[in-house]
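Readers of this paper often ask what the protein records in our data store actually look like. Such a record has a labelled line for the sequence and another for the backbone structure tokens. The tokens are whole numbers drawn from a learned vocabulary of local backbone shapes. We quote a single record here, exactly as it is kept in our systems:
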Amino acid sequence: MIKEFALDPDAITSSYREFCYFTEKFGVSQGRVISAFPKKWRKLVCDSALREHKGKVEFSKIVERLNKFGSDIVFDTSRPSGDGSQTWIDRALVEHARKPFAAIISATVVDHPDVLLKDEIDEENPRFKAARQCAIPRTAQALIGCAEFLIRHAKIIKLVDPHFDPTKPRYQRPLEQICSLLPGSKAIVEIHRSDEIANDELIRRFQQSVFMLPSGVKMQLHIYEKAQMHNRFIITESGGLIYGVGLSDNEDGGGAPDEEVTLMETAVKNTRWNDYSKASPIAIWP
């Protein structure tokens, strides 16, 4: 649901207006992020802007706006920076061959099917177009697949569902799917659910799912009054998704066959992140 693009610094610095035109299309809530490739991508943008606008107000405006970008816009997926002696586009093509981007956006024409010229970019370009809301089947793979990009790169993953119960297969399968994305991670998986079941019993039930956790991954259980909870979310520090039905699948039948998943606007994500960062966990594993 979220596309990662390699963006040529020279493609966005010819003017402040062009800089805004391109960058306002990015952000987790937009379904697109700019890859922090290479790691000094921001510096390369500054260098490019300086070449174009040295001594002009235009340069200061670009840098000021660039400095406001959060990790939800320029997203670090821990890619290597490549050979610094090569041009940006050559480094991007090498990295794309190793681990593909959704596309590479270039300032100049490049004869490669996955490279888009900056002048080709608009919301209708199929390579650039992103979905901010999806209708999906309620399978564990589809439910978690929408959040895969965020989960793989998260430090904290908040699963918010008032009825989350890993002893029930319809919740167990999505949790297993999440854990399958976390080998080598040091992430914390936080479960936020209601108090409709006694704490001791909930702890006993969640204890049974600890075997799913990859080495280094922790799980926390947070409890709220039932009346305080309704909506269902997956939230990480970089973004979030809203689930209409919930974080349970329908692979055994008997429930709604489909689900609507929506990317959270940044302000909403920040509010919900804060809402579900107040309660101390009643249990931590391992």
Notes: Residues 133-285 form a domain with the Endonuclease; Chain A fold (CATH 3.30.870.10).
